[in-house]
Amino acid sequence: MATVTRRAHGSRARRRQENLAKLLDALEAMLAEGESFTEVSVERLAARAGVSRSTFYVHFEDKGRLLSELTADVVDQLLEAGRGWWGNDPPASPDELRARAGTIVATYRPRAELMRAVIDSSSHDPAVREVFRELTGRYVTEITAHITAGQAAGTVRRDVPPGPTAQMLTAMAERGLDRMLRGADDAAARDAVEAFTAIVWNTLYRDAP
Predict the structure, then answer these.
(1) What sign has the CA pseudo-torsion 84, 173, 76, 45?
(2) What is the CA 76 to chain-centroid distance, rounded?
(3) What is d(CA 135, CA 116) in angstroms, rounded to the nearest whole number?
(4) From CA 176, how far away is CA 197, in angstroms rounded?
(5) Is the confidence at residue 71, as pLDDT, over 50?
(6) What is the pLDDT of residue 179?
(7) Where are the beta strands (DSSP E) in the chain?
(8) 100-109: b or e for each residue (b if 16 or more CB lie within 10 Å)?
(9) Which of 202, 208, 194, 191 is nearest to 169 (CA)?
(10) What separation in angstroms does the CA of 18 have from each of 12, 23, 71, 163?
(11) The whole model's pTM is what?
């Protein structure tokens, strides 16, 4: 009986993940077509995803709960991309930082419309706001640790306060990538990489002892 129960739970979890992926694809398509998240109804989203309305509500209380879960997944992806920058030793040159920034931009760009929905919804949906705040807080914590360690090693400028600088860089990336990458072509994406590289290099690494 225990084996049967585990298989049933595993099957439900697998179906839930499959439906979540379908809903993500459908939502991103609708947002890319110009709809705002507020305008997207559960009925039309479920139909676009090929998921029944009843199945949607089996998994999610409302579309805000769906967005909260999608937010967690996407921010985790961005966190992993960001660790390519701050999770390793400080870059030895602007070119090395540019390569790391390219990974962050390449990860964010296909999710730019979804992140816009998250930013908009966080202003009025407490569940989305709490998830977004908690997850972006992880960026600040890890970048702070990167700055602190680099200052001790002499690879990061010592005249920048670690915590406040990490907060500012996180806010800059959140808003800057949102504005520069929604509907961006390749040239705009390259501009985002260059801007990110210049700001971070000059803030943290240029003239480090």
Answers:
(1) negative
(2) 6
(3) 16
(4) 13
(5) yes
(6) 92
(7) none
(8) bbbbbbebbb
(9) 202
(10) 10, 9, 17, 39
(11) 0.80
